[in-house]
Amino acid sequence: MSEQKHYDVIIIGGGVMGSSLAYSLTKAEDSLKVAVVERDPSYEKASTTLSMVNFRIQFSLKQNVLISQYTSEIFNRFEEEMQVGDSRPNIALCREGNLFLVDEASRPEAEKNLKMQQELGCDVTWLDPDGIKDRYPLYDADQYAGGTFGPQDGHFDAYAVLMAYKAKAAAQGATFIADEVTALKTSGKQATGVQLASGGILQAGSVVNCAGAWASRVAATAGVELPIDPVKRQVFALDPQVKPEGPLPLTIIGSGLYFRTETGGLLLVGKSKDDDPVGFDFTWDRKRFLEELWMELAEFVPAFESLKLVRGWAGLYAVNQMDGNALLGEWPELKGFYLVNGFSGHGLQQAPAVGRYISELILNKPHAMDLSVFDPIRILENKPLSEGGLV
Asked: How does residue 2 score in pLDDT terms, banded at 50, 70 and 90?
């Protein structure tokens, strides 16, 4: 007979989302028995560690803005709160900003979003082309009406944040298990646990899908169909001949290409495309940059016509093909099965708020922030959320 262990909550996936949830659950109730099952404890193929890493306040959906405000606040005290004994994490927080370039056709929508963000107290401003060039002399912004700039946005060390959540959750009593969930266990319309590749069975009244790009595979074992695909996203690290005078913000130009500076004088560049391959493919293609992206980059930053492609890598977005927003909450047709999926590239920056929210759902506690708009019932009702073009 397979070994069976009993927990209060089983979390499938120990990336930043699963580890954040484990932290929030064990912080809320220190007697809670929480198990986190991670198939890749090296995190070699985890979206958390393969991300280009960014956090921003600039969303058009109010709840996404509120989530980002909370993340920004948390990061100010994150290292102190995540200290375990004498070990204090260093997340290398850099607030160099996010700049969204806006053409005339997109300006009304951008100004509408900017107004909403400012009314919520966000530090976001409008820069005209001259203002952009004053801040970033290498940019050729004349083709744009301007841009929205969030100076408190930026990036951080994703691996350090993940390890901090994991260490703190473990110190608070969470159990991390290196194994793979091969199937959800159910009884009627109730989730009861998980089957492990090693042969063991873990039992719990609450099972949480934090499997990232593997979310649909996990859910399908219980007959739950999710509109989430693993989509390959590539990042290219460049060494430009002409170095910027200071850090460049994450800059998103009209074509969808985005870039920012990295430590060591490097430039990181990426672009999401409609024809990006679906599947578990981690190869990267230098031709993609050399033949497609380089020209777009050099058109906006002529000084970057001369550069060296140093390396590249590929990771996976868990893309919610319905609306590009998260699925948060209990699946309506299977009691005790919670979804924390489909972040479509936003998950890393949303982990602090989402971990807290899902813990409140599971423990039936009042919500510090109402994120019910992301309830997965919208899949069954076919009611997608709109994000107004910001992805």
From this structure: low
